[in-house]
Design a protein that fits this description.
The complex is a heterodimer.
Chain A lengths: L13 E3 L2 E2 L3 H8 L1 H7 L52 E5 L8 E7 L5 E4 L2 H4 L4 E3 L4 E7 L27 H5 L11 H20 L3 H6 L16
Antiparallel strand pairs in A: 1-2, 3-4, 3-7, 4-5, 5-6
Chain B lengths: L12 E11 L4 E10 L5 H4 L6 E12 L2 E14 L4 E6 L11 E5 L6
Antiparallel strand pairs in B: 1-2, 1-6, 2-5, 3-4, 3-6, 4-5
The chains are: A alpha+beta, B mainly beta.
Family (chain A): Belongs to the eukaryotic ribosomal protein eL6 family.
GO cellular component, one term (chain A): cytosolic large ribosomal subunit
Pfam families (chain A): Ribosomal_L6e, Ribosomal_L6e_N
Chain lengths: 232, 112
């Protein structure tokens, strides 16, 4: 149906739920149905039903279950990435709180569709590669790095997926051989991606005095430091 | 707990002390422990720590998972009283020998 240009307004105000103010005959007059009839020669205008498209002959299956199976309601929900804290904007220096790189100060690049934050050391400065980090395990500082020279469009969650392991056919001999001999070498193109991202970043980092050594140093709580009073 | 290399020792947790279980004069309820967090002295200061994870780390004679150290995880749930003491629930109740021992109050899940 074509969308209506004016919203539907009822001419029959409700006294209470289920009871209108005007009777059926009064509403007939209010809606002007007598005028529609008069315009059409004493009868209501009729529209011929639209011709139905010829339905293809459905093949009836021989087997169907004895009782009706309940079909679950369709779920049309789409997950949105977690809301990014106001303190975290592209170029912010973050402190990682847990994991292998705990205490490291790291530059935030962008939020991925899964909600995780894409982050880089830069690798040359503090050894943190391009990595995903959860927002809950991170403190956003007020230090910002200029990130305009960096192109992060090619990184998404699929980039970080584990490489599919090729399935070895299980033979008896292979159990006794050292199966996992080949160490997982980082593919060269990932190393190159790291270099390109870091090149632009390191330039903007070196422009600010002391920022490079700041990023290289780790954060730690010292005696007398109270996190609830610290301003990051 | 095991570090592959000798890294920098960074402390990213606040020290806390286990005071005991939630209790009245003659009854104690071991499902909730009371923790005194260093440097936290009022009910208002506790709100920063609410929801933060806690770890009670202890040593055992037998190696499990390659280490003599074991850990019970928990969370800060709410303040206890007006002076900065905190109630915490652990995955399994803290053992009575933990009273007076240190507990680590981490800074995650973080909100800053």
């Amino acid at each position: 149906m074509a969308p209506r240009k004016t919203p539907v307004v009822s001419r029959n105000p409700q006294l209470i739920r289920g009871v209108g103010k005007y009777s059926r005959s009064k509403m007939y007059h209010k809606r002007g149905l007598w005028a529609i009839k008069a315009k059409n020669g004493g009868v209501f205008p009729k529209h011929d039903p639209k011709p139905k498209a010829a339905s293809t002959a459905e093949k009836v299956s021989k087997f169907y279950p004895a009782d009706d199976i309940k079909v679950p309601l369709p779920n049309k929900r789409k997950a949105k990435p977690t809301k990014l804290r106001a303190s975290i904007t592209p170029g912010t220096v973050l402190i990682i709180l847990a994991g292998r790189f705990k205490g490291k100060r790291v530059v935030f690049l962008k939020q991925l569709t899964s909600g995780l934050l894409l982050v880089t050391g830069p690798f040359k400065v503090n050894g943190v590669p391009l990595r995903r980090v959860n927002q809950a395990y991170v403190i956003g500082t007020s230090t910002k790095v200029d990130i305009s020279g960096v192109n992060v469009d090619k990184f998404d969650d699929k980039y970080f997926a584990k490489a599919a392991e090729k399935k070895n056919k299980k033979g008896e001999g292979e159990f006794f051989e050292a199966d996992k001999e080949e160490k997982n070498e980082l593919p060269q193109d990932k190393k190159d991606d790291q270099k390109t991202v870091d090149a632009a970043l390191i330039k903007s980092i070196e422009a600010v005095p002391d920022l490079k050594s700041y990023l290289a140093a780790r954060f730690s709580l010292k005696a007398g430091m109270k996190p609830h009073e610290l301003v990051f | 707990m095991v570090k592959g290399r000798q890294g920098e020792r960074v402390r990213l947790y606040v020290r806390g002390t286990v005071l005991g279980y939630k209790r009245s004069k003659s009854n104690q309820y071991p499902s909730t422990s009371l923790i005194q967090i260093e440097g936290v002295n009022t009910k208002e200061e506790v709100t920063w720590y609410q929801g933060k994870r806690l770890a009670y780390v202890y040593k055992a004679k037998v190696k499990t998972n390659g280490s003599h150290y074991r850990c019970i995880w928990g969370k800060v749930s709410r303040p206890h009283g007006n002076s900065g003491v905190v109630r915490a629930k652990f995955k399994s109740n803290l053992p009575p020998k933990s009273m007076g021992d240190k507990v680590r109050v981490f800074m995650y899940p973080s909100n800053i």
